[in-house]
Prior knowledge:
The complex is a heterodimer. Chain A is mainly alpha-helical. Chain A has helices spanning 8-16, 27-39, 45-71, 86-110, 120-141, 167-200, 204-213, 221-254, 266-292, 301-332, 335-346, 350-362, 370-373, 376-397, 399-402, 418-441, 447-452, 455-463.
Amino acid sequence: MSQRVDEPHDDMRMHITAPVIEPGYDFGTVTDKISAIVLRRRTPPGWFFGFSISFIITMILMVTITHLVLTGIGIWGNNQPVGWSFDIINFVWWIGIGHAGTLISAILLLFRQTWRTSINRFAEAMTLFAVACAGLFPLLHTGRPWLAYWLFPYPNTMGIQPQFRSPLMWDVFAVSTYGTVSALFWFIGLIPDFATLRDRAKSRFFQVVYGMLSLGWRGSARHWFRYETTYLLLAGLATPLVLSVHTIVSFDFAVSVIPGWHATIFPPYFVAGAIYAGFAMVLLLTIPIRKLYGLEDFITGRHIRNMAKIMLATGLLVAYSYMVETFTAWYSGNAYEEYMIFNRFKGPYMWLYWLLIFCNAVAPQVLWFRRVRHSNVAIWIVSIIVSVGMWLERFIIIPVSLHRDFLPSSWGMYAPTLWDWTMFIGTIGMFFLLLLLFIRFLPMISIFEMRTILPQAEIREEEA
Amino acid sequence: MDASHTTPVETSRFQMRALIVGIICILLCVVGAFLITDGLRQFFHAYLMGYVFWTGVSVGSLAILMLHHLSGGGWGLVIRRILEAATRVIPLMFVLFLPVFFGIRTLYEWARPLETIPEGHREVIAHKTPYLNIPFFMGRFVFYFVVWGLLMFFLNKWSLEQDRTAEPGLRKTMQGLSGPGLVLFGLTVTFAATDWVMSLEPEWFSTIFGLLIMAGWGLSAFAFVIIVASRLANRPPLAGVIAPLHFHDLGKLLLAFVMIWAYFGFSQFLLIWYGNLPEEIPWYLERMRSGWQYVGLILVLFHFAVPFFLLLSRNLKRHARTLAIIAGLLMVMRLVDLFWMIAPVAEVHGGGALGLVLNYWMYLLAPVGIGGLWLSYFAHQLRQRALLPINDKGMENLLEQAAAARHHHEPELQGIDRPEHI
């Protein structure tokens, strides 16, 4: 029995675990099945339905932004003492969701986890759209988004330089780098598939469009060699971003001295939370989409189960952080720290806190059970709960820490306005709008990478 | 048991030597403790440092073992028996806690009568008394060891059973315990870190501290296993089974641990420096003056920067001996890190160059002494069992590959450092 001596991991995994692609496919049928969604199959009515709804919601977002720009950010509910609220909650929530995409595409690639192959394209797209939604919030919170370039250190006649000691400044660089690298990674990953679509498209218009996007890809050995090198290098570049972006987001809070914000555990806690929320979102989206498009052979039960396990592991880390935060608040002996926890437990927003604990720390524990991990419906429900929980977590951290200032005379309450809600829900609409366009016009599963995990691909390599 | 699968005979000679070195060092420390000024103070702090370090190697190995059971992979199979032997030293560490217990009032300000504590600290320490008091402290200590001991016991028992019966279900059983086991590991180590190290300065606190110690323990355990594996790699039974590929994987994981440690350490430093709060910043101020800043600098350079850049090299990771040298450096750095955390608390000063030697020599001997006992017991444990879990399902594959590679004269899988085979 001959084996690939260099990869005992993968071989071993093949023997003991469920497949990452169901049997019975060859290079042609894989290509057919994925490209047909874009090129030949009729767009299902569900797509049009989803598109219409998300289009309407996106229009609500447009109205909100117009009103916001014309009137000013006073239409939002945040005001002293709660200076940050929905704008930052939603920013952190969206940017966290994006992290799963980078983790799947970059880190799992470096760790030679072949099961990532059928979900990476989709997750990367999700990252990109989530970052787009996230970016809107701080941009609009500046009040005059047309002057956002002031955030960059450029030589100007006003003699103004940005404050480099502020993590908000680091955020500008971290998030813009993240957006750029994610877009590059996604686009480069698409190039061979663009070429496939170019060759298979029937209409002249699509042949030209896909042709231009494929940048003259011919699939020669030299193309592939350079391509693989580039892709690995980009993966290496993207890996630290998974950590750095959310670490810097956590610095936005933790460098301050506000109880509930200033905690040294914040960086890893935020990173774990981001991956947690991100995998919840990937599961939330893939479970129905694979069913809708009949892609169960490519996105198999193993994918869903592995993602559920990662969700459980990161969820435990998040729960650990809640525990340590609570213990240390008491252990510190600092009256403000202790009050912060007391206020979470029994303050005016306590029901949100306990809901958060249920969503993020209690409910996901059902994933310990094999039976639950084998039920897609159950996993789907858990991922909705987690998505809500991660949003609540940011609500608890941000306004709930701010509304009780050091001096009781400065205490206040916070409630979002209608425009806060329309802005938040509007970005959800925009996210789905972009995602549906992506599914319709681009291959949502990487065709060429799927071909490499077919058993046929292994044999060819050995003969060579 | 197949004799060809046990450790080489040199191990028993090593076991004896380590024991002798260990006992001599400990005795020297004990003598020093009673002879020199502030000797007891130095002894207990130095002993605590060595104790935390070596407990970390055992408990860190336990965590890596559970990670291996959960994730699988060839890298874990080839080191599993080393990890298991390291976890079986846990009972010894339970006994070796005794000196810490005797020194509890010297080490921990909170353990002294409240009246003797300086005014400034008294209120905050009184607040923590429900947690920081001797009976509860000892109770927690016992609890941690019960948890670690039970995890160690069952994982080792089932692994041995697997050797004997080849029952395939045992793999799942070990996996089943490892998930909850890691959760318990996280909780126990967090509180052990708080008890043993963080509470040395009872007014100070940091939420990341548990994670920081976990990363450090994981790192020292990993470095230790790499060193042992590299020593065993070119002799049977591991020769020909453990391949450069495995060292490559181990090296990658070592790099990951180096990065995680640096990430946690930097996060803690940056946030405390930035916040500059009176209850937090003294911990760093103390460690950034009167010479301690150079120790800190050594950590930045040799606990992170140098190993980080070296471990990026693929060739280096695949070469067992060089990888072991870096692992050795990291083990030393783990001690330096604990030294930097623990020794400034002892506040022993004065005496110029001679004073430097007199006030700090036990920090060298105590970890060597505990290490001697630890290593001797470890070597004894390592000899008890086959060096490879021969009946694990993944093992078949691994041996087959090794055989195939020998058959085809594949240079990579043959020996570890035999360049003449190219």
